[in-house]
Specification:
Shape: elongated
Mean pLDDT: 92
Order of helices and strands: HHHHHHHHHHHHHHHHH
Radius of gyration: 19 Å
Strand content: under 5%
Structural class: mainly alpha
Number of helices: 17
Largest sheet: none
Number of strands: 0
């Protein structure tokens, strides 16, 4: 807080555009650390830092991109910031990192995308950026390294009509049923949430899930699942 009160943030924001990759990395990491303070989140947003953080996310080293995504995650903890970050064009860049980045980059991008997609308009931006096919790919990868993150984000974007259409077009129902039957409690609940949205008033999907033997796993989940809402970000 003292560093921010001394006026450091505007100078750091200017340095986000520095041509030296190491400087960019140090600057975005400094802003990430400063953003942990609630008052500093407001100061960073007021300093018009979002375009600069996006510049690093699109052009920086992989570590700088990871920390840029983590900074967007931190800033998006404030409701009104989600709209501004989404409108900046950050979501396609975050989807790219989520799809193509290092393991840590994928996780940082997933956390940022989850927060941002709590805003309805940002769900549409993520869907248009092509996140749904990658989510489904991650659900079915043998190592399952990103399965929890993918399932959590899918539960959020499925609350958008375009998300439901994209998910429904990709023959993912059997995968979701398998997740309800055999995976972690969080994945079971999030997969059930997506299936509920797909099946609501749709005889086609209802017939598919019935034929795949979903009733018994749902009965077990009804008896033993949590009472809270689904769509929570897993701890990493």
């Amino acid at each position: 807080m003292l560093i921010a009160e001394a006026g450091a943030i505007p100078h750091l924001v200017d340095l986000l555009y520095a041509p030296d990759a190491g400087t960019q990395e140090h600057v975005v990491t400094a802003l990430l650390n400063l953003s942990i303070n609630v008052d500093n989140k407001e100061r960073i947003m007021a300093s018009e830092a979002v375009p600069g953080i996006l510049h690093v996310l699109e052009n920086g080293s992989m570590e700088a991109q990871e920390n840029a995504a983590a900074t967007f995650f931190s800033l998006s903890g404030v409701d009104e910031n989600r709209v501004a970050i989404g409108a900046s064009g950050a979501i396609p860049a975050l989807v790219t990192l989520f799809c193509e980045g290092s393991q840590r980059g994928k996780v940082d991008a997933a956390k940022a995308l989850f927060n941002l997609c709590l805003s309805q308009g940002n769900k549409g931006r993520a869907i248009r950026a092509g996140i749904v096919p990658k989510l489904i790919e991650m659900l079915t990868e043998p190592d399952g390294d990103m399965r929890d993150e993918a399932m959590t984000i899918m539960a959020v974007v499925a609350n958008h009509s375009d998300g439901q259409a994209a998910i429904g077009s990709m023959n993912v129902v059997s995968t979701l049923v398998e997740l309800v039957s055999n995976r972690s409690p969080g994945n079971k609940e999030n997969a059930t949430s997506v299936l509920l949205l797909l099946c609501n008033g749709d005889p086609f999907y209802l017939s598919i899930v019935s034929s795949l033997g979903l009733v018994n796993p749902l009965l077990d989940l009804a008896g033993n699942g949590s009472e809270g809402p689904s769509g929570k970000l897993p701890s990493f």
